[in-house]
Amino acid sequence: MSAGRVAARCALALALAAACRGEPAPEPPPIRVAAAADLALAFEELGRAFEREHGARVTFSFGSTGLLAAQIEQGAPFDLFAAANVAFVDRVVARGACDGRTQTPYARGRIAVWSRRGRVAPPARLEELADPRFARVAIANPEHAPYGQAAKQALERAGVWATVAPRLVQGENVRHTLQLATTGNADAAIVALSLVSADREHPWLLVDEALHAPIEQALVACDGGADRAGGEAFARFVGSPEGRAIMRRHGFLLPGERLDEGS
Q: 227: which residues sit within 8 A by CB, 6+ positions away?
């Protein structure tokens, strides 16, 4: 029996014992979700909607997909892993940390170039990041962040990687990358569209998806947490009509949609 199921049974036993003594039952543990940093805005909204509908609390740990995968492999107590790259889901499944039978694609991500209004003239094309006015350009670390990998590929295919590379500052994950630009530590940042699609104050430029490999995102239930069934319920909610509508609002292309439908 998995550690997560043992913990869940123990929690149930404690609740029953408390009920027999006339004590209030302890609050059940939250559903714990490890989620790629690009999901922060979308999943926070999904979590609120899920709690209203199901009465169950969801907590999120957002970070770079590669680092979250490593934590899960080392036994971190998560019920669900939502990755920004399906390859990392394949990895945790292959290493026995999560259940491949629950693996499901849920989105395809896009990247955008964001800059703070008034700092520099925003780029009209990705190639303009080679211009000297962009003294520092932020991307997520390509070693473990799928959106950083996509940013690097796009700069390479646009023919400006050699020029931009010496000016790069790297974020731990795509949210940190955006923070580098919002705080003035970079003149522009290549980030997830989902983090900036609702921004009407600062300029951003959608990057042509042909410039990088598709950012295919998948999720999978894991046994490290205390409520795997809750993790699976949240995964189903992400794929529900309400969940898909929320994901779409945050700039994601969804399974079964063409690019012209999701843009």
A: 4, 8, 28, 29, 30, 31, 32, 79
pTM for this model (two decimals): 0.86
pLDDT digit string, tens, across residues 99-135: 999 999 999 999 999 999 999 999 999 999 999 999 9
According to DSSP, the β-strands at 31-36 and 168-171 are unpaired
Which residue in the block uniquely carries the two structure tokens 């700069």? 155
- Nearest residue to 35 (alpha-carbon basis) of 10, 54, 59, 1: 59
- Kindly list the structural domains of the chain, giving each domain's residue range(s) and its CATH number in brackets, ordered by start: 3-108+215-262 (3.40.190.10), 111-206 (3.40.190.10)
- Do the beta carbons of residue 191 and residue 145 sit within 8 Å? no
> Six-digit token pair at 133?
């006015």
* E strand or H helix that includes residue 50: helix 40-54
